[in-house]
Amino acid sequence: MFMEQGIRGFFRAWAPTLIGYSAQGAGKYGLYEFFAVRQRLYKGIIPLWGRQIPYTMMKFSTFEKFVELTYKHVIPTPKEQCNTPLQLGVSFACGYVAGVFCDVVSHPADNLVSFLNNA
């Protein structure tokens, strides 16, 4: 990418990323004190990691694999030749399926974190 677009390629489409991360940060950290997350988090930090790490690994690996399989077996057109709404639809559908797999993997540790936080 750097060879083709130079330094501008690294900053391409920065506005949506900035808006998305800003909204996420505002919600996550803006309500941090209100919900007393800081006090409850440390009790279950190891189970929290036991949930979050497999969840994240499963999310990225299954999403990428399902996108690849969708363009290989379901949509006969290469991704680069598909229009934007179709690409977004594929991403949405594959993200949904990846979310199901994430839930299955992280559910036991999620229950443990909930139990520790309620104790």
From TrEMBL:
Solcar repeats: which residues?
1-38
**MF terms in GO:** phosphate transmembrane transporter activity
Specify the protein's topology with respect to the membrane.
Multi-pass membrane protein
List the record's Gene Ontology CC terms alphabetically: mitochondrial inner membrane
Q: Where in the cell is it found?
A: Mitochondrion inner membrane
Stored InterPro entries = MCP_dom_sf, MCP_transmembrane, SLC25A3/Pic2/Mir1-like
The record ties this protein, via Gene3D superfamilies, to: Mitochondrial carrier domain
List the keywords (alphabetical).
Answer: Membrane, Mitochondrion, Mitochondrion inner membrane, Repeat, Transmembrane, Transmembrane helix, Transport
| Gene Ontology BP, a term | mitochondrial phosphate ion transmembrane transport
What family does the entry list? Belongs to the mitochondrial carrier (TC 2.A.29) family.
Protein's name according to its UniProt entry: Putative mitochondrial carrier domain-containing protein
